[in-house]
Structures are given as structure tokens and as C-alpha cells.
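worker-03 picked up job from queue 'complexes'. Input manifest follows; two sequence lines, order preserved.
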Amino acid sequence: MPEHFAVAPNWEWWILAYFFFGGIAGGTYAIGTLIRLFGAPADQGAARTAFLVSFIALIPCPIFLSVDLGQPVRFWHMLVDTSAGGPSFKYWSPMSVGSWALLLFGVFSFVSFLGALGQSGTSALSGVGRWLAGAAGAAWSVIGSGLGFFIAGYTGVLLAVSNEGVWSDAGWVLGGMFLASALSGSAALLLLLWRGRHDAQAGTVTRLEIADRNFVILEAILILLFLASVAAAGTIGKLLGALLVLWLLVLIGLAAPFTARGARMGAPAVASPLLALLGVLALRALVIFGGQL
Amino acid sequence: MAALQERPVGFFTDTSICIGCKACEVACKEWNQLEGNAPHFTADSFDNTGQLDAQNWRHVQFIEKIPDNKGTIGTPIAGGQAWLMMSDVCKHCQQASCLEVCPTNAIVRTEFDTVFIQQDVCNGCRDCIAACPYGVIGFNEKTGTVHKCTMCYDRLQNGLQPACAKACPTESIKFGYLDDLHAAADTRLATLQKQGFAQAQLYGRDTSAYGGLNAFFLLMDKPETFGLPNAANATLPSRNNVPGYLGGAVTAVLGLLAGVLAFRSSRMSGEQR
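worker-03 finished. Artifact:
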């Protein structure tokens, strides 16, 4: 059984905020691309919303990360090797890879954001919108989605690549669990934004609900695997006690998409995705704080 | 003082002759101008330093196996000792977890084969703290960077031995070239085993823990007693890279399938805006 003597890095609220917003940014971009490639013409409005949300969610991410640093003005040391010169890139360090991925994803997300604005009627950006609607735009979105998936999931790998209890004990499952959770949270957010729109097609909302439930099932399976991993390592005790409240929120969040089926307006239509998003946040809080107890 | 050769140097800490005087802690703080943390009363130990951190680069552990109310010692120690003492320090691992994960390359290996944190490069991300299996590195709020033992790098550059080794009155902390220290440790271990100390063992002398430690120890009990992972648990953070990314990639494929299953029906049925 693994024994851990590592101390806590005191990654707290800023990191939790980054993990949440980064997950939403990556997840919504990937869902936007899925709708763009596989959805009906009636669904394309939801794809535009997804690309808009992705970039907006991404904006605070580098701020959260920089503020969490002990020396925030040295944020650029993540990208530039100030001692040896040249770029600083270590493929075996998830924090290093993640810094570059965040930068690259920012470019893809920003262009797709402009394209979505262009497609939504901003005439100055209509050229970008047309370009993104074509084959080259599809390729752009696919590459951006790859980066989006990475941003949504690498945070789990970052925690796993350590010697902390819980985090390193569930090394193979944490990245996937965060990714699935990001997808379910992103689908919930799009439902929240899309359900109340007067121009929303019933079919689009239904398909978003189906996608949300599919993602939640995947997330639930991965949470069970995560629990099995930490139980086998003997560190599950760190995730109990006071953290049981967070588990309750996670469970409510997982159940929420199944309770508001078909709701278009009113409290259930709003409460269900909000609870799902709260569950996504609670899951990350559980892992971040639980691992450092 | 003659300059040190650019050869691997290290510490050999022989815990069998540590008397817990903490001269090493004091010398370290004085030389490195460490303010130290506010003293606190631990109530159950003579150890009031607590742990290695940004202010404590040496920490004399007191492992107290004091008899309980029935007069028995929980786990008898070879030779009937009730106290074990060990001056803990950064291990300057050959395969250093902190150096491995550091995204800014602030943590480097010096010409003396020691592990050093460049204070002007570190941005305080604290990834190394989560990686270090020995709980060595600490974050300093004032500097906004992480700190640990430098093996008195400035002294080494000037041909001086580290302050802790210089101050140790029993020579429990020995400094020198690594191959010389290995030979001295082997001799000492053989002597102790001949005297009947069956539990005596070297930790970090061979490559079983992080490829070998430049600061290695002679222990009078199993490594876990001193907060040191045994060989089976001495694993690098990077062990989780491949499984972690693989798990993420499989989930990404399943997520794609889940999304395609949800949205493709509309395209197949030819639904229009």
C-alpha cells in the first residue's frame, strides 16, 4: 500500500476556479465542434453559443493562475526559460505542457469566438464567420477541440503527477474524470443558456439534454473508478468527514439532468443545470482539498 | 581553503550517533539567514521544529518510542533504544521529483551534483512541493518562492563545507565527496551489524530510492519510521504521466461518441432550422 510523506502545496480557491472555468472553456468548445460537425442546421445556433461561452470562460483562466503564483509577474517563466534562454517546455511536466496548451487553445478559442460573432450578425467579423463555416473552419474547430479536451482534462493529470495521497493514487483516472465532468458541466451550461431562448428549437434542447445525460453517465462511471482507486490505496478516508457535503453536491449534480427532462421553462429548467454545474465545482473542490488534507 | 572539485558531493547522516542537539539547525539558520518559524509547543515531543519547510532546511527528528503506562515499548528497537534522532534534510536525489516537475526550470542540478532552486527564476507555482516525496520544500510568503537546503552552495563554491556538517559536534553529519562517503557508510554499517544492531541499514546509499541520494542516511529502524518512503514507495511523479493521459484520451473518445450519438440523429433525420 502506498505511503505518502509529501506536504500540501496549498493550491486552493484560485486553482479551483481555474479548474472549473478551464473545464467549461474546453468542454463547451468541444461540444460546439460536435454540434458544428454532427448537428442539424437547427442546432448551429447552440454551436455558436458554445464557442462564445468557451472564450468568455477562458478569459479569467490565466488571471486565476497568475494570481495563485507566489510571484505573479513571473507568470511568463512558464513559457520562457529565463536561466538557459529559449522556450521552457517539458513534455513530462503537465504544468509546463498545460501552460503551452492554454496559450494555444486561447488562440483557437478566440478565433472561433470571433467567427461565432460574425455568424451571429456582427458584420465586421462576417469574413471570419464564413471562413469558419467552411472546410478549413471545420479543421480549425477539430484541432481546437483537441486542445479543448486537453485543457478540460490535463488538470487531473497535473494533480496525479505528484506524490500526494489521493491525487497520485488515482493517477490513471483523474484526467478522464475531470474531462467527463467538464463535458457534463458544459452541456448543462449550454442548456441553461439555450432553454429559455425564444428561437430555441425543441429538438436542439432535447439533443443537448441527451448529450448531457450521456456525459453524466460517463462521469459517474469514472467517479466510481476514482473511488475504487483511492479505496485500494487506502486514502479514501481523506475524502470523507467534512467533505461529505461536497459528495452530496456531486450526487445531486449527477442526478439533476435526469430530473428536469423535457423542462423548457420555469424553476426545473434553470435549477437542474445550475445544480449540475455546482456538482462539477464540488467534484473539483473534493479532489483539490481532499488531496491536501 | 582549497576549492572543491566539481565532483558529486553529499551528506552522510549517521543517525546512530545523533544526540539531538540541533546545532545543525542553528548553524543552517545562521548561515542562510533564515528567520525561523515562531516556536510552538507540540505537547507530545521534544521536537519543536516540526518539519522541514522554507525556514527549516535542517530538522532534527525525535522519534520517541517511550514506554506506555504498562512500561512496554510499542515497537522494540535494536539495542533497546527508546529515542531515535535524525537530522533530516533535502536528499538531493539523483532522480529528483521536484526537478522533474518544475515548469520554469528554476530547479537545477549544480556542478557539485546537488539540487538547487534558483530564486530569481522560481515563480512560486508550488508544483515541486506536491512532487517532493520527502516533504522537504516550503513556500515563503515573503519572497513568493519556494525554498529548501542548498547544501550551502555558496560555501561549496568557496571551498567550505556546509554549515550543518561544520557545526555537528558528533560528526553525525558528514560532508564530502560521495564516493568517499559511501565507503565510510559501508564501514560504519558493518561495524554496527557486528555489534548486533540488526535493524541498522543505509537509506539512499544504493539506487533503490530515486536513483540514489546525495544526502543519504544510516538508520536504526525502517525508513518509514523516519518519514522516508521505502524502496517500493519511492516513486517519481512522472509514473502517472502515461496512464493519466491515456485515461484522458480514452475518456475523450468516449465523450466524442457520447456527443455524436446525441447530435447525429438530427442530421440523419434531416431536421432543418
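worker-03 released lock.
Chain A touches chain B through 79 residues (CB under 8 Å).
Chain A is about 70% helix and 0% strand.
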